[in-house]
Amino acid sequence: MNNGVLNTILWDDYIMRALREDITSDDVTTQAIMPEPFMVTVDLICKQDGVLCGLDVFERVFQMLCDNSSFRANFKDGDEIRKGDVIGVLVGDGRAVLSGERTALNFLQRMSGIATLTRSMVKELEGYSTKLLDTRKTTPNMRPFEKYAVRIGGGTNHRYNLSDGVLIKDNHIGAAGSITKAVEMARAYAPFVRKIEVEVENLEMLQEALDAKADIIMLDNMTDEMTAQAVAMAKGKADLEASGNMNKDRLKKLAEIGVDYISCGALTHSAPILDFSMKNLKPIE
Fold it and tell me: DSSP secondary-structure letter at 156?
């Protein structure tokens, strides 16, 4: 996979879990109809306009079921595709093709849907320095693929997991007693190379976070007016990230106000799939 998001060992582990979910013992229908090896070709066809993402994962599903399977792609991840496009041709044992079809399409459809939504939102920020970020609101056991899809769509990954960065949220502040104390404790514990981000809900909390010298401050569910005040207060002191119920309509306004980042959980938790199908299965003579 591109961009170094996954290595093959981790990738195979996730794919194998998905296959085991769908094939607990055997594929009884396919085994009944094709008891012996039977090499075929089948077309992968796009059924909606969008951004393609996940071809390597799609192909790998079949390679894990059939050593001599291969996929001849006509497009690559990141390409804008149209309804009716033949994305490529899969060659393999018909038993592996039929048994792996749903799992492979599930990965491809989910990843392409996320890349498509991300691309549409990133286009709203063209001409601005503001970056669009994802969140940890991902499907369990799909995070590597979903965060990769955000990157393919042109977005930027926020922290990958809890080990990847310091983000002090409201409950951390409650546990520590104050923003100031929470930042002090995080700075004492975390490696010095880690930036410290603090989530705030109002301008008083923002000022405390600035005084504590937080590196990044997340503005949680602030109005445009409050966000503009926050940008004026924080200028040159900390980067600002706007967050909370973000949608496509707000992006340009927030970029105009001048936040550095906009995080959007919807990129991964609410992206509709991009539909594909596998059609025209033919035996290889």
Answer: B
pLDDT at 156: 97
Where helices occur in the chain by DSSP H, the ranges are 8-22, 28-33, 55-65, 94-122, 143-152, 170-176, 179-189, 203-211, 224-234, 248-257, 266-269
Task: Point out the residues that are catalytic.
Answer: 102, 137, 169, 199, 220
What's the longest Cα–Cα distance across the chain?
74
Segment holding 201, helix H or strand E: none
Mean pLDDT of successive 10-residue stretches along the chain, which has 285 residues: 52 94 92 91 98 97 95 98 98 96 98 98 98 97 96 96 94 97 95 90 98 97 97 96 93 97 97 98 91
Reported pTM: 0.94
CATH classification (class only), 2-120+272-283: alpha beta
122-269: CATH number: 3.20.20.70
Task: Spell out the alpha helix ranges (H) of 153-202.
Answer: 170-176, 179-189
